[in-house]
């Protein structure tokens, strides 16, 4: 199977996207963070 740098880019991008989604969900679930944002 041919392996290209583009495949590596897509795979790493997918991993980064997964991390962002997890972080965003954690922030949304974190009430104290929401409180700080609302007070600004």
From TrEMBL:
The name under which this protein is listed is Uncharacterized protein
Superkingdom: Bacteria
Q: Please report the organism this UniProt entry assigns to the protein.
A: Vibrio ishigakensis
